[in-house]
Fold this sequence. Notes:
Order of helices and strands: EEEHEHEHEEEHHHHHEHEHH
CATH class of the largest domain: Alpha Beta
Shape: globular
Number of strands: 10
CATH superfamily of the largest domain: ATPase, nucleotide binding domain
Largest sheet: 5 strands, mixed
CATH topology of the largest domain: Nucleotidyltransferase, domain 5
Strand content: 15-25%
Radius of gyration: 21 Å
Structural class: alpha/beta
Helix content: 40-55%
Amino acid sequence: MANTEGYLVGVDAGGTTTRALVADLSGGRVGTGRAGGANPNSHPPEVAAEQVAASIAAALASAGVPADRVRAGVLGLAGASKLADDRVAALFDAAWHGAGLKCGLRVVTDAEAAFAAGTASSDGTVLVAGTGSAAARIVNRRQVAIAGGFGWLLGDEGSAFWLGRQSVRATLRTLATGAALGVLARSVLSSVLAIQDVSGDPVLRRSVVSRLITAVNAEPPIHLARLAPLVAAAAEAHDPLAGEIVDEAVEWLVRTARDARSAGERTPVVVIGSVAASGGVLGERLRTALEEACGGEVSVAQDGAAGAAWLASLELLGPAALSLRPQLLDE
Length: 331
């Protein structure tokens, strides 16, 4: 039975998806909600704030909990630096309270929420590799240094966006050079153009190159992230182009994590995101490489919203919040 003394809300707002969780004060998960991406760097801030409110409303409805019963909440936000703009901060504050919450809005970075989801330790490193990529050094559960996180135009190496872009680039090179289409190239063409295969006719190949470029440029750049699973699947099928992309992704992500750490540091490393926490060859190779390069225990955080909710419980309950982790985070 849900704790009747109050509830917690945790929100994990990323580039493509926003997830909210309602938990009771014993750590029981009582409701979840989902909405679109809410990173104010990759979406209009007004739209991003609306998605946060929508996810909270959905979670409260799922839980059957009145908003005024929530005693503490934390928003883990990708692109939290954008809230340095008072206008943007006001939009998110209005969305929070517009969802009916009476407790104050506390915003942390998505990295801080992810780290809390992966370990009870107060210090360490978190590697976020989902739509975008970044690593952060965490001290006393606060982000004190960051590596990467420059966004799709200037960085995000190893991220789902980067993997998707590399898959299209590799496909274009294959078409342009007349090479045989492998698993990855066929998958990309099928997904983007609904083409199953292309003959060796140079004229046809040039036409497909133009169509592929046009189709990709017609969508927001961040939509390339949807192609990332094709790279992982092709690598599992031993496609050489996909294998090269996976190798490079692992190298970039390990470098990003190491850049966020102090020399000789042996604190835990938490990984989260569709790329970093995946169960396939990419995720497994990444975690092995991180253990070798960083020297600390590597754990996977699956639920940033639960991490945000646990941070809210720490604020409300203090050290007693440690007892919530087994149920809240399935530890």
